[in-house]
């Protein structure tokens, strides 16, 4: 049951190597067939459709009403069209949370986790196996512990009285979570999430042909040159996939709430915390539905930006 | 679980059940089914009154081994077996289940809100007294008279033991929705060791704010710098504690109630006086503003109090019985009875408090309501009566005394605790309760933000301006805000 | 040589950065009255005795295990089938669909969708069969799987993309059915990927508080993430002795699982996610 050949040359921006795209164009070499493929996809799509897509659409619908958890608007919610969206767009708290989230994402995920993850993957390749295993295990431990547990660990780290950081730096009484709240949660999130980037990059680096690296070395290239001219072209796709995933996860991460509760004031009120405060603390469910859509749109913009960057890069 | 609808569709083929899911879903969305908890017509309170077998569920934000463990154990080990036994004597087979929860209050509220909205949930539900109005407005709960019948409710002899003011905790617009389960009061706690070192009296009772500030200044002058003279709850990190254990008692001391004659306090002299006090305390080093900005600041202030590093705290009697009590989990003090002093909160100047009082306080408390969807309203009320009887109430607090809703119980169990007796006899009579008005929780958030602005270094003018505009956003109607 | 020493000191610093926060988890549970300070405790096991006396503590860990295994099964099987098909057969709009689902799953699974999820399960699910209703572990598994599947498919698809189709072609020449090919050829090749997805799923389920909290009422069915929230006092003060001790117990299963999976199957994106 061969599938019909795909005649439209679909521009698949997330395909890097031309040779790969070429191979994919002759799809279905294994004879799966579209019909069977649909059956293979069906269980996952069924679950996603019922328990993700349906509630998501419902949430977006609630976003166009004045529904609240309690009170008259709870009993008789009204359809209010775009009212919630206009009030979200004129709410300074929304822009504050968007800005805080942006800083949080850029510094902790895009720069921090990406950079440290890559550095670990790159530098641990050739070190002693036991050293590598130990470092990797520590990094992974930070990633697999439950977030309510790691919150306590970091409160203990940054506590003003007797916190580990103050003990190590000999800065008794420094209130890191009050004076540098955003920096604190950024460092926390680098600690928390670097493992994913590290794993992804160590896999990616194993796909760089060793002969290319040797050639570069023989030609006398510096480490930086090797990375730029030999390694990066090979792993460009991985960089962007990784960045996309960690950006999405970090954008919607609730972890900071457990450490700073969004404070002091609203200095660490990232999008997920703003949403929690609106939905759970204040019970404004219609409004929180509207915020969800705005956050979704922000995420779409970021995803498209990454795809565009990828397309540009692969064109050069 | 009670109320679960079964359509007997177990053996349907997958396809058809998916189709029906889709149909129901579309129908739900199409009808805009979001809220609409319960119907408007009251069900017969006498339904199932004569059955010989029934099942009831109690839920409370309490869990054995965790939050409010004593409360959970009391229900499981005393209330349920005794009640079932009583029913058995009447020839009725009762099954009573307890559904423990034990999480953050906002999350508990969300959970029971979801249950009540979909017509499910336990038959007897513990709620915070401040939610009663909200829940009533949402048709989540109904007046007791409707749920179990006016004759039945009014014939309960327990009401005589519950002071009118405490009954407000379970009422909305002067209609009873449930039975209150106790109350509390706010006072100024002070560390007698700190006071002694600063040369202040052990039986201190300020009669004006000036007295408080003088004492704080004395501590600051006489003792080393790492001792915080006075910590007032402020900021957003403490949540409702800022409002209840800080702003509102002080507002009462400045002569105003937050919701008075149908109006919220906006930019008024009283609000300004309170914020000025915050500015004085946190601007001149009498209190530690950083601690108020920390997410764990309140816990920290408790810890420091036990270590003799905090002079005064404005707190609820909860602080006495659950935080510093010998053997408590958070910050126990073996010598609590000697070291921890307490004083009534004075008005700005004598007689300047709300209602012309010299001293003020704020109180809260929980309530127990009956789910209007219960299948067995009469039996649920019987269980309520039992839970609020003299014997059951006494049993609940005998090992860990606190102020109950019943005066007869208070008279016996508080006798050995001078602090709680003080609250019951001297504080509760002059206390105020929060308004049971829907917007209160949003107003409370605005108050927390205003006090945060002060500890963050804003002037009183800036903080008041921000508070006023936030209030306008929350309340909507400008006529419902008092200014000037 | 100086470079080498510099490199090792930086590595040590980074190892320390990742290790130091863990100290509290090792010291506080053994401290009779722990604070947020890391101190060498007067070693006591009293906290363990207290937490084990909590009637819900151990059962909650078992519930977490049940939810984690069930959800991981749904996610791994569902994602493997879908990722294989999506990798090998071009379905129009495939990439856009994957992106859209990925975005939705990361945005609309939390607090905002609480009411729809609750009503979906309590009204519609329960009407179909109690096992899809409130208080059912199965329903919780389905809900959590749906939130994790998009990212799992996204990641796994790239593993499958990394396998040259020639292996499968030869198997097909010998007449193996597509399902056989998937089971006997593809799955062994992507085992490290499946292991990674499994660990990722378990970690996510292990930490999820909100979904089980709103969908389960019976305290005997609640997982450890919910129990963790009950170890506070009435006014929200953390009982650090219990929380630290339970944190350790709560963390051990995932750590053990990681060690097991890592030893048995390797724990890396072998071949990598290709984009």
TrEMBL record, chain B:
InterPro entries per the UniProt record, alphabetical: Bact_solute-bd_prot1, SBP
Superkingdom to which the source organism belongs: Bacteria
PANTHER family in the cross-refs: ARABINOSE-BINDING PROTEIN-RELATED, DIACETYLCHITOBIOSE BINDING PROTEIN DASA
Protein name: Carbohydrate ABC transporter substrate-binding protein (CUT1 family)
Protein species of origin: Stackebrandtia endophytica
